């Protein structure tokens, strides 16, 4: 039998201690583990309150994001990109990036990635400067 999960109307759980450093405001982020029968991958919904986002990081094996609610931002080497419900983002293996909600709008995405596959020991580049109050407006 297939396993099913639902992200709509879910609040998720507090960010686990081992992931708190990945977020600028971990108390404004909730995570929800979802079923994933794909070998070597985890699936989780990440619910970002307005203004919450990750710090710059990379995934050795890459990461696949599907925006399921709200308006958010994904930044990579080529700039800051506004993402909306229905958008799919595929971060290549080893690619520098960060993502989250806009300053004024919450966002939820579902992530598919290898468990524990993130590296925050990266250059922050323009992380602070690229996220002003006008992002997403």
Task: For this entry, give a set of tags.
mainly beta, 137 residues, 8 strands, single chain, 8-stranded antiparallel sheet
Concise synopsis of the structure shown:
This protein has 137 residues and is mainly beta. The chain has strands at 13-14, 29-34, 42-48, 63-76, 79-84, 88-91, 97-101, 107-113.
How would you describe the overall organization of this protein?
The chain is 0% helix and 37% strand. By secondary structure, the chain is mainly beta. Strands 1, 2, 3, 4, 5, 6, 7 and 8 form an 8-stranded antiparallel beta sheet that branches. The termini are far apart. The mean pLDDT is 94.
Helix content: under 10%
Estimate the global geometry from the Cα principal axes.
globular
Mean pLDDT over the full residue set:
94
> Which residues form runs of ≥5 with pLDDT under 50?
none
User: Largest sheet, described in full?
Assistant: 8 strands, antiparallel
Tally the helices: what do you get?
0
Order of helices and strands: EEEEEEEE
Specify the structural class.
Answer: mainly beta
Terminal-residue CA separation: 44 Å
Please give the radius of gyration in angstroms: 14 Å
What fraction of residues sit in β-strands?
35-45%
- How many strands appear in the DSSP assignment? 8
What topology does this entry show?
Layout: E1 13-14, E2 29-34, E3 42-48, E4 63-76, E5 79-84, E6 88-91, E7 97-101, E8 107-113
Antiparallel strand pairs: 1-2, 2-3, 3-8, 4-5, 4-6, 4-7, 4-8
């Amino acid at each position: 039998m297939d396993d099913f999960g639902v992200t709509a109307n879910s609040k998720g759980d507090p960010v686990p201690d081992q992931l708190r450093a990945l977020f600028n405001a971990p108390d404004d982020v909730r995570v929800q583990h979802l079923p994933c029968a794909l070998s070597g991958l985890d699936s989780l919904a990440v619910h970002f309150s307005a203004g919450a986002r990750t710090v710059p990081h990379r995934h050795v094996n890459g990461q696949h994001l599907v925006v399921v609610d709200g308006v958010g931002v994904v930044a990579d080497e080529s700039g800051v990109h506004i993402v909306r419900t229905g958008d799919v983002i595929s971060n290549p293996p080893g690619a520098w990036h960060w993502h989250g909600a806009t300053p004024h709008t919450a966002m939820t995405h579902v992530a598919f990635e290898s468990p524990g596959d993130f590296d925050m020991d990266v250059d922050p580049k323009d992380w602070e400067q690229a996220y002003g109050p006008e992002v997403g407006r």
